[in-house]
Structures are given as C-alpha cells and as structure tokens.
Write a structure and sequence with these properties.
Layout (H helix, E strand, L loop, with lengths): L2 H20 L1 H12 L3 H22 L3 H4 L1 H21 L3 H29 L5 H29 L3 H22 L10 H4 L11 H31 L6 H21 L5 H25 L2 H26 L8 H30 L1 H36 L2 E2 L5 E3 L5 E3 L11 H7 L1
Antiparallel strand pairs: 1-2, 2-3
Helix pairs in contact: 1-6, 1-7, 1-8, 2-3, 2-7, 2-10, 3-6, 3-10, 3-14, 5-6, 5-8, 6-7, 7-8, 7-11, 10-11, 10-12, 10-13, 10-14, 10-15, 11-13, 12-13, 12-15, 14-15
Length: 435
C-alpha cells in the first residue's frame, strides 16, 4: 500500500477506536431507561472500560516496539471488532459491561501502537502531523463519538445498531489497512520482559511526580464526571431526554481538551500545570452552580472550562516529568502517570454511582465536584511549592537535561550549560567526569 494511503487509513482506523470509546456514553442512559437498572450499575459499565484499558496499556503497551506495529494493530483491532459485535447484539446490561471491558483491552493495546505508527507513516514533509493526530485524537475522538451517537439517538430508531455496525465496518477496514501497510519497526528480542508491568518513578522525578498527582486526580475525576455522570444528571435532574443534547454536553469537555492540546505547547510545563489546576477548580464550581440552579448552559460552560484544565494539566505534567528521567526510565514513569490517571477516571465514578441511590443524584454530584475542587486546590499548592524549590535549586546550580546536556531552568526552557567556575560551555560528559 502506498505510504500516503497507509497513513490516511491508519488515521481513519485510530479515529474509529477513539470514536468507539465515546460512543457508549449517551447510549448507557438509554439502556438504563429501557432495561431498568439503577445508576450505580451504569457507572460500573462506564468505568470498567478504564480498568481494561489500563491493564492492557501496562501489559502490552510497548509490545509493538519489539514485534512490530502491524501484528499489534491487527490483534487489537480484531479484539475491537469483537467488542463492537458484543455491543451490537447486547440485550442486557451484563453484555454491555462485558463489551466495555473487551473494548478497554483493545483500546489499551492499540493506543501506543497507533500513535507510533502515525508518526512513522506520515509523509516526510509532515512528520509533525502524525504526532499532532496522535496527541489530539483520543480526547477529540471521545467527544465526537458521544456527539454523533447522541445525534443517532435523536434522529434514528435503532441508534445502537447503527452506531456499532458503522464502527465495526471502520474497524474491519482498519484491519485491512494494517495487513497491507508496510512494517515500520524491525523485530527485536525482549517482548516477554517488556510485558511485565513496570511502574517506577526515577529519584530526580519523585518530587515533581508527587506534586503533579493531585492535579491529575482532579483533572481525570472531571473527565469521569462528564463521561460517566453527566448523561444521568441531564436526564435525572434536568428531565431532558434529548440524545443530541446529551451528546453535545458530553462533547464540551473532551472537545475543549483536544483544541487546547493544539496550542498549549507554547506555555512552560509549570504554567500549563498551574493553569490546568486553576481551570479545573473554576469548571467544577460552574458545574456546581449549574446543578444548583438547574441551568444546563452552566453545565456546558463548566465542561468547556474543565476541558481546558484537563488538556493543559495533562500536557504540562508529561512535559514536566519527561526531562527528569533517562530514556530507558520513561516507560515506567509514564506507566505510573497513566495508572494515577485511569484510576482517578474510573474509581470515583463507581463510588458516586453506589452513593446515588442513598444520597440522591444532586447531592452526590455536588459532593463529587467539591472533591474535585479540594484535590485540585491541593495540587495547585503542591505546584507552587515545587516551583519555589526549583527556583532555589536553579539559583544554586542549573539543572542538566539528561538527554542532551542542556540546562533546564524552572521555566522549563533550555539553554547551554555553563561551568559555575568559568562560565564556559560545559558538555554532559565533562559534567559527569567532574561528578
């Protein structure tokens, strides 16, 4: 297959995977109405996807580096096709939960392989296009999947059949593209060793990791709120049954995050993290006001603001931590970040779902948002403390970036290192010898 066609087909297949991740969100409240289960079961059906994705990402996330992109993509898309078939034929919530678990496993296996393949298959003049698609597609795809599924609920009589039949077709085409595309990786040994989950935070990154954890918990709890609870809130508190409106409201949060991902790189990692924490707090407060006043527009505005916080804080955290680990340590470090993220994405929603029958939907949701504000505020305080420590450390001695020997100050910007005794340029090798 010509490289340009392979690149376009791979991008389409990746879009299908991310669309599928958001598609069930508006359908779950429809199934709740049709099959008569309570909101606690609905949140389990939502969150089981996150746990399956995390497990798969930790176990086979780096497998394509060893055995090649094509085998991993073919296998992951085949599992995705099975999940779409399970959704298509599901007749009760148990089948939906099982399908979501299988879907999570498929997405986790495909995620890193798709991201790498898009960069490697991109036309030589547009290599950055593959990286942009890989970074923006997950959030944007989830939002668009929810929006289009909401439209199917609004305007068709069999939305689940239409949505999952269409996604099964796209997935099948993606399998064909993977079969016909050129392999971009040379096989190498070590696949079995790489399949062992490796969660590790290198010592130089410990303080920044600890400072980033509360912000990430708050950000991903906010994501869980919009993808896991907002459909129930709109139906239960606002008494609105419009599938299109539910899909559009859910779209607000990941859609804003995807757009922010395109432009946030100009900010320093610290500023990006702090902006993220602050906007998550503001977004949660606006959602609380919208629930209290029963004003749906405030819910949408809160989602847009919180989406900016998610995209900004996630980008800032990854850019902040990456220079603090050697290349062979980053997989374990990012695995630790992903573990925090997806546990915060899934566990609080399940807890909230179990509380709704006893405490009520309004009180549970308000308490959930208050918890987000508390955690994100803790994160802002931690970020301020980390910034002060870094400023003091930089005043004593500049910090070297582990890959290229450049000095990285508290702003995250790079400059050539200089000896404190002479002010002359100093290479990484000379610094190590001196140490």
């Amino acid at each position: 297959m010509p490289p340009e066609v392979a690149f376009g087909g791979t991008g389409l297949a990746f879009a299908g995977v991310t669309f599928a991740a958001g598609a069930p969100t508006p359908l779950l409240v429809l199934f709740e109405h049709q099959w008569g289960f309570h909101a606690g079961i609905l949140t389990v059906a939502f969150a089981i996807y996150a746990f399956g994705l995390l497990l798969s990402l930790l176990v086979v996330g780096s497998l394509s580096d060893y055995i090649g992109r094509r085998p991993v993509l073919i296998g992951a898309l085949s599992v995705q096709l099975l999940a779409m078939a399970m959704f298509f034929f599901a007749s009760n919530i148990e089948w939906v939960i099982a399908a979501r678990a299988v879907q999570g496993l498929a997405t986790g296996a495909a995620f890193s392989a798709f991201t790498a393949a898009l960069v490697e298959l991109a036309p030589p003049r547009h290599r950055e296009l593959g990286a942009v698609i890989g970074s923006v597609a997950p959030a944007g795809g989830i939002g668009l999947g929810a929006l289009l599924t909401g439209a199917a609920i609004q305007f068709t009589g069999a939305p689940a059949k239409i949505v999952f039949a269409g996604l099964a077709l796209v997935t099948s085409l993606g399998i064909g593209v993977a079969f016909l595309s050129a392999e971009t990786v040379i096989r190498r040994p070590g696949a079995r060793r790489a399949s062992r989950p490796n969660l590790s935070v290198p010592r130089p990154a410990v303080r920044e990791f600890v400072a980033a954890v509360p912000v990430q918990i708050g950000a991903w709890m906010f994501v869980g709120l919009f993808l896991g609870l907002i459909p129930t809130i709109i139906r239960g508190l606002f008494h609105i049954n419009s599938g299109l409106l539910i899909g559009a409201t859910v779209f607000a949060e990941p859609g804003a995050a995807a757009i922010v991902g395109l432009f946030i790189g100009g900010l320093s990692p610290r500023t990006s993290n702090q902006l993220g924490g602050a906007t998550i707090i503001v977004g949660s407060a606006v959602v609380i006001a919208g629930i209290a006043a029963r004003v749906l527009s405030l819910l949408v505005i809160g989602g847009l603001i919180g989406g900016v916080g998610w995209g900004s804080s996630y980008s800032g955290t990854l850019r902040m931590l990456s220079p603090l680990a050697q290349p062979d340590q980053r997989a374990g470090l990012f695995a630790a970040v992903f573990t925090v993220a997806y546990l915060a994405f899934g566990v609080p929603v399940i807890v909230a779902g179990q509380l709704i029958p006893q405490a009520g939907l309004s009180s549970t949701t308000t308490g959930y948002c208050v918890a987000i504000v508390a955690v994100a505020t803790t994160g802002l305080i931690a970020q301020s403390g980390a910034a002060r420590r870094r400023t003091r450390a930089d005043a004593v001695e500049p910090r070297l970036d582990g890959d290229n020997g450049l000095v990285r100050g508290s702003s995250g910007r790079l400059s050539r290192g200089a000896s404190s005794e002479t002010g002359c340029p100093q290479t990484l090798e000379a610094r190590r010898s001196r140490t």
